[in-house]
Amino acid sequence: MSQEDRRVLNALAAARVKHEELADLLDFYSDLYQVQFEAKARVPAPEPRDELARRWRLEGGIPQVTFAQLGIEPALLSEIVGEVLQVLQRHNPGWEEPTGEQDALQLVTLAQRIYDTWETLTSPGPAAEQEDELWSRNHPTALAVGFALVPYLTRCAEEIMPHLDLELWVHGYCPVCGGRPNLALLEEERGARRLLCSRCNSQWKYGRTGCPFCRSKEKQIYYPSEDNVYRLYTCPDCKRYLKTVDLRELHREAVPVVERLLTVGMDLAAQQEGLRS
Questions:
Q1: Which residue from 48, 73, 186, 189 puts its CA 20 to 30 A from 206's CA?
Q2: Given this model, what pLDDT does residue 271 score?
Q3: Model pTM?
Q4: Domain 166-272 belongs to what topology?
Q5: Angle CA(104)–CA(107)–CA(111) in degrees, nearest 5?
């Protein structure tokens, strides 16, 4: 397990002490992250692209990684899905355990459908709305496959991001995997905005104004927290929202994947108003 992964787990443990009201959520993600971090060490590194190919994709607005490049072997994916299912069932005892043995090739097929059509790995986007039970975001198998993809994507991001000239990337979706952001951070020095991918956790700079989802230049409405650390930005055009952490107000070390969990109340408030992330 990498030093950064241990830092995340330590930050989760510290947040668990401070935020007892989020104990169930943080306990779940502590167990899930443990599985994902350990699995990341077992998945293959992506096949590298040469510098010209990387630059061509950046300039063309094309994410670097295709599903085929993840190098998914059915047996290993099935193993990781099984580990994730154990976490899901341990923290959601009311859920029915999937009946029968999961077919490894079917899991790979489902993984590709999720990768290609879901904006995040745990919630289908408009393109994925089908009647197939496996598409339901509450179905343990689909959810487990989405979570099992995270080690592959984060491994790719760690390998690829250091080689990208992100000055060439001006889009609101991830330069690595094409995922949508579900958190933003305002930098301490000048308040520049960085987006955090909901799928592979990559970060990239994006203009301070405007909506990263629909690229509307209309003024975004935002609702600050009482301590001004967190903001909920909403777009009047596409009715989507983006949680934001102002690092100038945080006064402690920020661990973005943990901040994403600590702001779950903003998700609930926004979704009650009919907004989506």
A1: 48
A2: 94
A3: 0.92
A4: FdhE-like fold (3.90.1670)
A5: 140
